[in-house]
């Protein structure tokens, strides 16, 4: 699948050729992430941080914008993450995963090893990727997985094991992505301004122990729209067992589908911003149509309720994206069917996510009315109303403030009054002389006023859950 990239420099969204030359810039990061998140994960990269353009606190001109974007989707973040403290901060701010580049490597050890490794071993390792210096295109690739054992042993200390062990312990292996970017077949570091003496595949094998996935960027191809180095990607894919994401030069849906077929995802930038690739077409093209012409689609509310199951063909997915209303293929009638086109109870599309096998899709939706033809809220329950949840209460409160109606108690609660009510309800809840029903009653009251305060302060339940997850990982 495609991971859309938002690269930030000087507070703007940019695209750079070979990581250096500015090709385009724009100022609509918030709109971009809302659009990109409909189709899959989003990578937010602080280019200034990667280049070391930060103050003594580690902040750049992109910091405030980056913090805002982390709350708006399934976001992975990279650029200048050189400490465990910084990685933990980003996770606490909402990042699902962090991308570590230069900090994963002992650059000094790499420099010392340049002259220490026997010439024969160096030559065999370097043959992993021979680059034509004139145009930057890979012209021949040998079997890098068969690199010399002596050279591998000599280079094993180049991975920054102490830092990566601490990072994995702090945030979990599943949240760690290691960048194995390459220039001339060797690992590139420091914002792609230099390389270490470690061939790509060998470095990837060393790094795999410490992460859930590897992000490979062919720097020579980055921003050039000329296609990636498929042979090098294939060798990387066969050398490691973790998830591999390819970036740099990918410029068409057929190329994305080909990478998907060999088990690689794609991180895409320039091709999206220039219109060469449509995320809609890429999402549909990566699904496993060889297994079946119809793919199961599970509709789930934003609050987690499973609503219904239907089936979609390629045209149905395209219409869902185009209309922002979930559309299926009716097996009974043999035609496209947009849920709610007769009843008016449509499913407003928030995002689609394919499963690991790409043969089932989860649709996150906002139901506009009851979903089941029986009048029930879901097709798996007889209840007419949406079940209570933290999310449902929060949404009701948000609606009351956004569109107050005469007599609405919620709309009368100002900042002072809601805090007074929280103190009052908390005191009543702590009264020892209570029955179980009293505790239920007072807890419900306190929960209501807490939701009001959260809404007024711009705090969501996702923020709270993320904080609880962070605390759990620290124990």
Number of helices: 18
Strands of the widest sheet, in order across it, are: 1-4-5-6-9-13-14-15
β-sheet strand percentage: 15-25%
Structural class: alpha/beta
Short description:
The protein is of the alpha/beta class and 475 residues long. Helix content is 37%, strand content 22%.
How would you describe what is shown here?
The chain has 18 helices and 21 strands. The strands form 5 sheets. It has an 8-stranded parallel beta barrel with strand order 1-4-5-6-9-13-14-15, surrounded by 7 helices. It has a 4-stranded mixed sheet with strand order 17-16-21-20, covered by helices on one side. 39% of the residues are buried. It is an alpha/beta fold. Mean pLDDT is 85; it is low at 114-154. The chain has helices at residues 29-36, 47-50, 63-69, 84-92, 107-116, 119-126, 149-155, 161-171, 200-207, 230-239, 253-261, 270-273, 279-286, 314-323, 390-402, 415-429, 436-456, 461-474, and strands at residues 2-9, 12-17, 21-26, 42-46, 75-78, 97-100, 130-131, 138-140, 176-179, 182-183, 186-189, 194-199, 213-217, 243-247, 264-268, 295-301, 306-312, 327-330, 335-338, 347-354, 361-367.
Please tag this protein with its features:
475 residues; alpha/beta; eight-stranded parallel barrel; 18 helices; globular
Topology overview:
Layout: E1 2-9, E2 12-17, E3 21-26, H1 29-36, E4 42-46, H2 47-50, H3 63-69, E5 75-78, H4 84-92, E6 97-100, H5 107-116, H6 119-126, E7 130-131, E8 138-140, H7 149-155, H8 161-171, E9 176-179, E10 182-183, E11 186-189, E12 194-199, H9 200-207, E13 213-217, H10 230-239, E14 243-247, H11 253-261, E15 264-268, H12 270-273, H13 279-286, E16 295-301, E17 306-312, H14 314-323, E18 327-330, E19 335-338, E20 347-354, E21 361-367, H15 390-402, H16 415-429, H17 436-456, H18 461-474
Parallel strand pairs: 1-4, 1-15, 4-5, 5-6, 6-9, 9-13, 13-14, 14-15, 16-21
Antiparallel strand pairs: 1-2, 2-3, 7-8, 10-11, 11-12, 16-17, 18-19, 20-21
